[in-house]
Amino acid sequence: MKNVTLPILIILFSILTYQRNLIWFDEVTLWRDVVSKSPARARAHNNMGTALKTSGSLSETIISFQKAIILAPKWSLPHYNLGVIYKDMGRIEDSFREFNKSIELRKENYRSFNNIGMLYTKLGDRDKAMAAFQKAVSIKADYFEGYGNIGSLLINEGKIDEAVVYIKKALKIYPGYPEGNYNMGLAYYKMGRLELASEHFQMALRHKPDYTEAYVNLGNIYKDKGDRERSFVLYDKALKIDPKNMEALNNIGIGYAQNGEMDKALEIFEKALSYYPQDKEILQNLEMTRQIMKGRRNN
Q1: Predicted pLDDT of residue 3
Q2: Is position 257 within any domain?
Q3: H/E/C letters for each residue in the chain?
Q4: What digits encode the pLDDT tens for the residues 30-51?
Q5: Does the pLDDT of residue 130 top 70, yes or no?
Q6: Number of CB atoms found within 10 A of residue 257's CB
Q7: Which of 13, 72, 227, 294 has its CA 20 to 30 A from that of 180?
Q8: What is the tally of structural domains in the chain?
Q9: CATH label of the domain that carries residue 272
Q10: In this predicted model, which residue has the larger pLDDT, 248 or 35?
Q11: 48-70 as b/e, with b when 16 or more CB fall inside 10 Å?
C-alpha cells in the first residue's frame, strides 16, 4: 500500500505545483490572485496597479491605486504612483494634486519633487522646475535623475558649461544613465565637440536602444561631417521607432534637396506636413522645393 500511495502523492503534488505556477505566470496574475484572497490589503492593490502599468488598462491601473489609497489613506506611495499615471496621461492638475499629497504624507519623497519639476518644465515655469529638482537632490544627494533634469533645464537655457557640471554628477552616480548620456552628448554637440557628443549618444543607445532623439542627434553629427549616407541610416532608425519624428523627416528632406533629388525631398516634406500642418520650417522647405522644381520645369 505504501508503494502505491507514494506515486499518487507525487502526482497530486505535481498538479498543485503546476496550478501554482500558472498563478505566478506573470505579475498581473500574481497580484490579482493576492487581491482576490486579501482584498483589504492596500499593498496588494498598489502592487497590482504597478504591474498593470505596463500590461493592463489605464482605467484598471488607476482604480487599483485609488483602492490602495482608500484602504491606507496615510500611505504616500499610491499617491505617488497615481501621480505618475496622471502625468503620463497629461492630466497635469490631477498629477500635481497626487504628488503634493504624497509629499504631505512623506516629506522626503524626492521622486515626487522630481516629477513636480518635470511638470513645471512642461508648463514652461523654469524657476519652479529648478526649485523642485534642487529640492529632490537636497533630500537624496545621489539622485542621478534629479541632477540630470537640472542639467537638461540648463541646456535649454543655453547654460552649457553649468549644465555639464550637473550631468557629470549624474553620470558619476550612474554611468549608464541613458538620459544623462544623451544630455551630455547634446551639451558637447552644442559646444562643437562632435566626437565626445557621438560617444555619449552611442552610450545612451547602448542602454536605451529605442532612444529616438539619440539616433536623430547622432545622425545630425554625421550630417555635419558631410556623411549623408550614414546620417540617413540613423534617421531611418529613428523613424522606425517614431515614424512622425519631425526632425528626422525634415533632415532627410533637406538631405535629398541638397543632393538635387527634389522628387524625394518633396515626398518627405509632404509626409512631414501631413503630421505637422502648421510647422513653419516644414512649410518653408516644402515651398522652396516646389519653387525649385517649378524652375527646373520652366527651363
Answers
A1: 52
A2: yes
A3: CHHHHHHHHHHHHHHHHHHHHHHCCCHHHHHHHHHHHCCCCHHHHHHHHHHHHHHCCHHHHHHHHHHHHHHCCCCHHHHHHHHHHHHHHCCHHHHHHHHHHHHHHCCCCHHHHHHHHHHHHHHCCHHHHHHHHHHHHHHCCCCHHHHHHHHHHHHHCCCHHHHHHHHHHHHHHCCCCHHHHHHHHHHHHHCCCHHHHHHHHHHHHHHCCCCHHHHHHHHHHHHHCCCHHHHHHHHHHHHHHCCCCHHHHHHHHHHHHHCCCHHHHHHHHHHHHHHCCCCHHHHHHHHHHHHHHHHHHHC
A4: 878 888 888 889 999 998 899 8
A5: yes
A6: 19
A7: 227
A8: 1
A9: 1.25.40
A10: 248
A11: bbbbbbeebeeeebbebbebbbe
Say if CB 54 and CB 81 are below 8 A apart: no
Close Cβ partners of 178 (under 8 Å, ≥ 6 residues apart): 204, 207, 208, 211, 214
How many other CB atoms are found less than 10 A from the CB of residue 225?
Answer: 12
Residue type, 245: N
CA distance 51 to 63: 13
**Residue located via cell numbers 547602448:** 206
Nearby residues of 185 by Cβ (< 8 Å), 6 or more positions away: 196, 197, 198, 199, 200, 201, 203, 204, 214, 217, 218
| Least confident window among 15-29, 92-106, 189-203 | 15-29
